[in-house]
Amino acid sequence: MIDLQLNSEGKLKHFLTIEGLNKEILTEILDVAESFSSMSSQRVKKVPLLRGRTIVNLFFENSTRTRTTFELAATRLSADVLSINIAASATSKGESLLDTINNLEAMFVDMFVVRHGISGAGHFIAQHTAPHISVINAGDGQHAHPTQAMLDMFTIRQYKQKFDHLKVAIIGDILHSRVARSQIRALNTLGVKDVRVIAPKTLLPQFVENLGVTSFNDIEEGLVGSDVIIMLRLQKERMTSALLPTEREYFKCFGLTEKRLKLANPDAIVMHPGPINRGVEIESSIADGPQSVILQQVTNGVAVRMAIMSLVIQPKGNVS
Amino acid sequence: MTKIHISNGHIIDPANNIDQLGSVYIANGQILSVNEPPSGFTADFTIDAIDNIVCPGFIDLNARLREPGQTYKGTLLSETKAAASAGITSVCLPPDTSPVIDSQAVVELIHDKSEKAGYSQVYPVGALTYKLAGRELSSMAALKQAGCIAVSNAMAPFANLLVLRRAMEYASSHDLLVMYQPNEPSLSNMGCAHEGTFATRYGLPGIPYAAESAAVAQCLELVELTGCRLHFSQISCKRSAIKIQQAKKYGLAISADVAIHQLHITENDIEPFNSVYHVLPPFRTDKDKQHLRNSLAQGTIDAICSDHQPHDLDAKLGAFPETEPGISSLETLLPLMLRLVKENEINLSQGIALLTQNPANILKLQSGALTPGFSADICIFNPSTHWQVNDENWKSEGKNTPFWGEIFEGRVMHTIQAGKIIYSL
């Protein structure tokens, strides 16, 4: 399964999960992203790398931020982009996932960017597409969101340069978070030894420590001495499914406040994959404060997705 | 009817304590004698069983044959033929067919079709509740009269414990065995994999042990309350086995089985997102697997079943959580049992008892042994013949097995059901 992502030369073919990718590949993504990053501030923001290529964004789940950054990234690489919101399209007419893919394949596309509510959907599509097509996972169920994790790594490197001695705290709904799963894997691969997850037991999966983290049920204990604080979004439905009592109590116990932030290192950065619930996960003054890098994450999202798209695209000769 | 003489075989018949070289004599569809040649017996047909084991035919406590209702996955003909090739002479068919086995008409249909097929004997298990909806009792007396060997709600939930209690009381009034697959649906919560490291890593909705063991605990209380004869089907975790062991020690009239694949595969063996590993109950941990193996040797678990669930290709084509659970497993039952013997978990005689004598006792069948007068249900297998799981050898319509391509040791040579040879290699 891990081989699914790599071609016979060990290069990226699909980008489905951080698992199975080594430090060199992750570093290459960050380095390539770096070169694209400087481009965003230039007057002409386009490179012709993917000219003549067609990329289809297949979003089976709604998303504004991820979809727009993927669209922007593809446009800046000069690709033709088509975004399809499947929730309101074919599958609601009873067409199977595979039929949808086959139909789009018949239109000679080069890459699928897929977001789907079921874990493993990206793998399934990658296994069943034609060999010249690359698949990028833009989030599948509770499994993985590897491009988000890479843009977070990019942001961390921007502010902290090296990964080795960092202490990273991830706070919130780890149980349902594909972002957290990919972040943990990426941090471990890049050399971070101290990753902490902080949440009540209802939002921590069983045996979470086997993922390579230390778990805390007390935010203040977990925050002490951290260099990077990653907040996760809390979905409203966690309250109705008996995982949490109220938003107020969650904020009281696990919200990031100015007072709690002082427990971290003074130069700690605060991250959030968005969209933010102000006053639920995080105090507004922190989200807009000097330690917040939340908007920088969004900016970096474009460069990192450009890097990943340009790395996975198959050489033209392969198109049958 | 044909008179058959099976000669030179290594006869293993745990019920009669036989484990020796010898002959079996069959006439009129029954066992005539073992070793002692009956006077004046002239065989119409002799099977030379040299180098082979001769034992009672296997009794499978749980196999979906997909008919009526899902004949695109398998039919009574295709699946009983596969069963015959695996040495299985009797199969219990759970009631979750379509229509459900909750009327005499459906029972008769199954009997007619399986008799016409002429392979293994099919024993329908009747629905415990009307339409398996878990709310009202089924017509159990009528189902028993029609030929249902037991009653069960298959994998369908009960509205509440009161319905289960009443159903157990009513079943026991008619001296019907209740087969119960323990699962508390509110705890398994639409999960698709064991709630452990694997599910956590791949973000799959998990099913905790407690979904099974809590259901076992509740059910044991109701066995005590109602005096119902109850069989736990396909238990998968250590916690359940411990509870069953304690209850047996305490004296409750219960029994239990395990699906053969649970004794060989754990969550660590699952290829990520490979849907052939999607099965319910899910593959658990190494600790559970080892405890289940020990429970066989100690007698806490009485029988091994196939839990056969053949599927069409589409059923397994999708992202893991969206695919249908279940493994096609009739044909790997014997070789996987022999693997337990090879790994010194049980001896061969115990292994055979788990597939013959013990399930016969659970079902109160006059079968599962080579006792003179019993139906001549016999399996003759070569324990050292190798074969590969591939298109050429596989009989079931469902190819959904994690063992596809694997080479097994131990192969059925002949299967005899009621004195009729229903399979020869």
Concise description?
The complex is a heterodimer of chains A (320) and B (425). Chain A has helices at 23-37, 65-76, 97-105, 121-128, 146-160, 178-190, 219-223, 237-240, 247-254, 258-261, 284-287, 294-312, and strands at residues 54-59, 80-85, 111-116, 134-140, 167-171, 194-198, 214-216, 228-231, 269-271.
Distance between the amino and carboxyl termini of chain B: 22 Å
Tell me the Rg of chain A in angstroms. Answer: 19 Å
CATH homologous superfamily title of the largest domain in chain B: Metal-dependent hydrolases
Structural class of chain B: alpha/beta
The arrangement of helices and strands of chain B along the chain is EEEEEEHEHEHEHEHEHEHEHEHEHHHEEE
Report how far the terminal alpha carbons of chain A are from each other.
24 Å
CATH architecture of the largest domain in chain B: Alpha-Beta Barrel
Number of domains of chain A: 2
**CATH architecture grouping of the largest domain in chain A:** 3-Layer(aba) Sandwich
Q: What is the overall pLDDT average of chain A? A: 91
How would you state the average pLDDT of chain B, rounded?
Answer: 97
The major sheet of chain A is characterized as: 5 strands, parallel
* Share in β-strands of chain A: 5-15%
CATH fold field value of the largest domain in chain B: TIM Barrel
